[in-house]
Amino acid sequence: MQFDDVVKERRTVREFLDKPVPERVIEEILSLAGNAPSSMNGQPWHFIVVRNRDTLEKLIGLKNYFCPPEKQEFQADFIRRAPVVIFVCVNREKSFDRGVENAVLATAYILLAACSRGLSGVYMSAYRSNAPEIAQSFRELLEIPADFDPVTLIPLGYPAVEPPAKSTTPLEEMVSHEAFSKK
Fold it and tell me: In the CATH scheme, what is the homologous superfamily, with its name and number, of domain 3-174?
């Protein structure tokens, strides 16, 4: 699959086939994620691959408990059907005050690499800057050391549905030249 195709075909999917994702595929995806850009090339990532059903149930409970009122329609119960969840954590010292950015870049690489292998997933946050108890709850559940921050989690699997084509904002509405201009 060509890069342009991967970018255009990547979709958020919350329905997965009852089909395990081979460990080799996860390793390939995470190896590619390690090539993401990072502040000062700190490469601060640590990936936690979660397949254990009891742990996934606890993740669902935490995500639903901390779900903000405006996102109640996006409960995390669908994670039950995901064969694997990848947590993206970053080492604070190696992040050079850019932990969130570093983790989000690695997460984007994971989603693109997964798409190129026929998988789909969902980008989900494992923290909120104004609610440190969220990250702390995940830290405790997954035994994440204090010098690492959980930033995102990605339920992954083979899609059980064909998501609709994505509409994008027209280029002329997204791009200005030399200075910002609203059209």
Answer: NADH Oxidase (3.40.109.10)
